Description:
The protein is mainly alpha-helical and 337 residues long. It contains ten helices and two strands; from the N terminus they run ααααααβααααβ. A two-stranded antiparallel sheet has the order 1-2. The longest helix has 30 residues, at 82-111.
Amino acid sequence: MVRVPKLTRADALAAARNPLDFIATRWTPAPRTVRRAALSAVVMAVVIVATGGAVRLTGSGLGCPTWPKCTADSLAATGAMGYHGAIEFGNRLLTYVLCAAVGWAIVAARAAEPWRRGLTRLGWAQFWVVMSNAILGGIVVLVGLNPYTVAAHFVATTALITVAVVMWQRAGEGDAAPRPLVGKAVVQLVWFLVAAAALLVLVGTVVTGAGPHAGDSSEVTRIPVDWETVAKLHAVLAWIVVTLTFALWFVLKAVDAPKAPLDRTRELFLVLLAQGVIGYVQYFTHLPEALVGLHMLGSALMWIWVLRVLLSLRERPRTAKADLPGPAAEPVVDAAV
Length: 337
């Protein structure tokens, strides 16, 4: 067993002044540990999307009718509030689990040797997005589930997923200058794909804001557009994203691209096919809650794989200084950072 050093008064003062520095002097995680910590933040961000969807689809959006408390007199949900209160309060509690995952990623990145400031900053960026989105979630409750604030809440969560995925990728790389793996024309095609996917997500929030699942059984304001018309526009954008992905795969094959971009593009295509099947089935079966929830989860996974395609277009080899003993990290590539 490893003997734990005795904590002195000086150590306690140092830990109080700068806890991250104190941890870094006593613990050096393996590169794989850092990457797993970053992955935990990605997973929890996706979980928050899924549970947030469960809150809306069960009509529990106002299960806790105020914020930051659950009721005017109670911080937590009470038995009298029923399952709506339990679901909404449970989703609030999961925010603390998300904070713990992001905190773990920050600590692991700061304690790694050598210290990579850029990686730590990505962790802190996630923390501030989580904090701002928690406040926005409170505003959503206080304004009675106004659909525009609900859409902004989802977009902020998508931004969190974006930063978390970039940190996850960067944790598996070195800090050498990025080296392109494909030509500029391919990069431009992928950026068109990213833009189309982002627009697809944004239009999806309009479908949600105009559709029948308002998030609560009471009268909730909806976006004043015909949701079926917007849903058809959403479907057209989905086909554009699928077409761009299919075209990208053929282009990558034609230019004999490395394995990583080809693999990520093929995986994205499969995710899009599954998401498309769910989308059409839910539309023609009049939006059953379970399928709508799966579609929301699929939206998060689709965005993650779009980012992974983008991040596979360059590589950042590890420099000799960054190569540390321990389990080797899976080679990953990056195009955006």
